[in-house]
Amino acid sequence: MKNILATVSGKGGVGKSTCALGIGVALCRKGKRVLLIDLDCGLRCLDIMTDVSEDLVFDLGDVLGGRPLSDAVLPVRRCEGLYLLAAPQSTDDIDGKALSELLLSANFDYIILDLPAGMDFPFISDIADITDFLVITCGDAVSVRDSSFAADYAARFGANCRLIINKYTTRYLKGGVYGGIDDIIDRSGCRLLGLVPYDDECVGNPMGIFKTGNKKANAFSRIADRIYGYDTPLPKVKRIEKGK
C-alpha cells in the first residue's frame, strides 16, 4: 500500500478519527515515523484525542500559506514517532495542489489524513493518485450503505479504497442490527483491510487508544502489518472480540 493514507466515511460517528489515530499509533510501535493531518476543518478533534490542543499555535492552513512545516507539527507525547498537524477552521484555507506537494515532500514514513465525514472532499482530485483511502464503517445497514457511497465517490477520481469495519460486535449480529462480515464487504464494494472490535475500554476515552494489549490495539496492529505489506490473516471474529 501507499505511504499516504486517508480515513473517510459516508457518515459521522463510525470512528473515523479513532481509526486514523489507532493506525498511526500502531505504525509508530513498529518503528515508523507517522504524521497525522487533521482535515476535518471546523470539527477537528485529533488535537484533543492526542492531548496537544493546548500546544497549538499554527495549523495546516499556515503551512500551506508558506510557514515551515516544522513550526506547525506537534509531537504526540504519548507515542514516540507520532506527530500531528491540526486542521484550519475552513476548507477555504486548503489549496489542493499545495496539499499534494506537501504530502510528497514531508519527511515521514507514513502520513494519515483524517478527512471529514460525507463526500465533500474539495481537493480529492489533487490527492487521489497518491493516496490510499481507508473507508471506515460500522456493521449497521446505514453505515454500510453510506460507506459504499463514499467509496464510489473516491473511486471516480481513481482512488484505491480499502475497508475497515469498526466497533464490530457479534452481539449486534445476533440481534440483527449488524450484517455478517462477508455481507458488509459485498455491500461496501471494498476489499477488507481490517476488523476492529467494539471495546468498552475505549468508549469516551481517546487515551485508551494509546494502551497496549487491548482489543483495539491488537486489531490496529494487524492493520498496520497489512499496510506495511505483511500477509497477516484475519482471526475469527470471536477471537478478535476476546482481544486476540
Walkthrough of the structure:
The protein has 244 residues and is α/β, with parallel strands linked by helices. Helix content is 36%, strand content 18%. It has eleven helices and eight strands. The chain has helices at residues 16-28, 46-49, 60-64, 69-72, 96-105, 124-127, 141-155, 170-174, 181-188, 215-228, 237-241, and strands spanning 4-8, 34-38, 74-75, 82-85, 110-114, 132-137, 160-168, 191-197. It has an eight-stranded mixed β-sheet, sandwiched between helices. Helix 1 (16-28) crosses helix 10. The longest helix has 15 residues, at 141-155.
Radius of gyration: 17 Å
Cα(first) to Cα(last) distance is 25 Å
Beta strand count: 8
Listing every helix as H and every strand as E from the N terminus to the C terminus, the arrangement reads EHEHHHEEHEHEHEHHEHH
Could you give the topology of this structure?
Elements: E1 4-8, H1 16-28, E2 34-38, H2 46-49, H3 60-64, H4 69-72, E3 74-75, E4 82-85, H5 96-105, E5 110-114, H6 124-127, E6 132-137, H7 141-155, E7 160-168, H8 170-174, H9 181-188, E8 191-197, H10 215-228, H11 237-241
Parallel strand pairs: 1-5, 1-6, 2-4, 2-5, 6-7, 7-8
Antiparallel strand pairs: 3-4
Helix pairs in contact: 1-10
